[in-house]
Amino acid sequence: MWTATEGNGSAMRGMWLAQISKSGPNAASGSWSLVSEGGQVVLEGTWSARNTSQNFEGSWSARAGNGRSLSGTWNAALGDFKGKTFKEMLSLTMEKQIGGAWRSGRHEGNWWLEGSRKKRGP
User: Fold this and answer.
1) pTM for this structure?
2) In angstroms, what CA-CA distances link 72 with 61, 92, 99?
3) Does residue 102 lie within any of the structural domains?
4) In degrees rounded to 5, what are phi and psi of residue 90?
5) What is the tally of structural domains in the chain?
6) Are 71 and 60 in contact (CB under 8 A)?
7) Would you say residue 120 lies in a domain?
8) Cβ pair 95, 121 in contact under 8 A
9) DSSP assignment, residue 117?
């Protein structure tokens, strides 16, 4: 699951999938969707990212049901994260929520990712 806000606005939520690049562990791409309170998909799109020497950053695009296209950029703010690859960053979502910032034209906000946590033993 992912959660995002625009400015001080209400939270948006959705699903995301990721695949690490076959060319190396420092790039990834995937798909994402924005889901309404009633569970209907409002936006669907794709994202891509890479690990630079200083940060994890990427771009995203989506198409609304009315055909309107949206796009923007994002970056991760991981604080004390010691990993070096995008794969390690995504693996961290299995332990805790991670986040960063997004931007699209004049709009900007924050985002958070959570991985699917499997229940461990009794």
Assistant:
1) 0.77
2) 6, 24, 16
3) yes
4) -65, -35
5) 1
6) yes
7) no
8) no
9) P
